[in-house]
Each structure stands twice: as structure tokens, then as C-alpha cells.
Amino acid sequence: MPNIRKSRVWLWCLLAGLVFTTAGAVANECGRGFAAPPAQDFNQGRWTVHGDGTLSDAFTNLMWKQCAEGSDGAQCRQGRPATFNWPQAQARAAASTFAGHTDWRVPTGEELTSLLQPGCFMPALNLAWFPNTPSSWFWFQSPEADHTERAGQLSFAFGQMFSVNQRNPAHLRLVRDLPAPEQP
Question: Is residue 183 in a domain?
């Protein structure tokens, strides 16, 4: 009987959390209507969309591929976000020539978490900038990845980070460094 009670409490908490997080996400827009963010938005002045499936982040001086690997096209609706184990993710990044660039890579944990937008959940980023992003796990380059069987993953459901076995599947979003801005 105690297990049933715990299950009911867990289910109630889960449902209550979904109602509250969905209400908060809609209130913050989070790109769900694919409308331009409001002027006071977290992203104001941050992003430059290039029209080739990439966008630049003025805060971090990085260029991101808007679609998760495996999807493409307008609003990332062609194909489906694919999953890769860690070696496959690294190989995919190294081989990418998307938008004419050959220096794509797997982001660091800090870089990937920079995409998280306060108030957005399921996914925890703005869909206007990163359409059709699954609320799932994405790889990031972590210190242990080079000398253990583990590597980092971030969940775009709520923004949690974990170290997992490199054989586990996860999605991939590619990033590249932009040239340093010229100093006046």
C-alpha cells in the first residue's frame, strides 16, 4: 500500500509541475508562437539570425546551428532530431560542413547552458531561435570525456546536467567559435 500512495503523490506532483511550468512558459512566450520576443525579453539584442540555419550569439561570440542534428529546413521540420553515442557525436561534429563552415564542434557545458532561458521549460530554451528542439538530452564536452567512459549531457526539459556513459544516446547541437570582435 505505501508504494501506491507514493505513486499517487509522485503523479500528482508531476501533473501539478506540468501545469505550472506550462503556464509559466506560455507567459514568457519562449518562442512557442514563433513570434518575435518582447522588447524586455531575455534575448533582446543577443541573437543574429543569418538565414542559412545558423544564428550568432553576441553574448558568447558563438555561432549555433539552429536545428538539432538530424533535422533541417524551415522551423527544423524536415527529418527528426537524431541521437548519437559520444564517439558518433564527436565524429558528426568534426565532419560537418553545414553553411560552408568546417569548424563545427560539440559545445562545452557552459556554452550549452547559455542557451537556457529563464522561465522556459519543456524545452528550457526559446523555440523562436532553436525550433523543434526536443525536451531531451544533448551532449556537451566535459572534462572526463577524454579520460573516462563518461561524458556530459544536458536535458533541455528543465536544464539539468549529468555525467553519463559515453554509450548512451543523446541529441547533438553544433556550435563554432566566431572570430574575436575587433577592438577600437
Answer: no
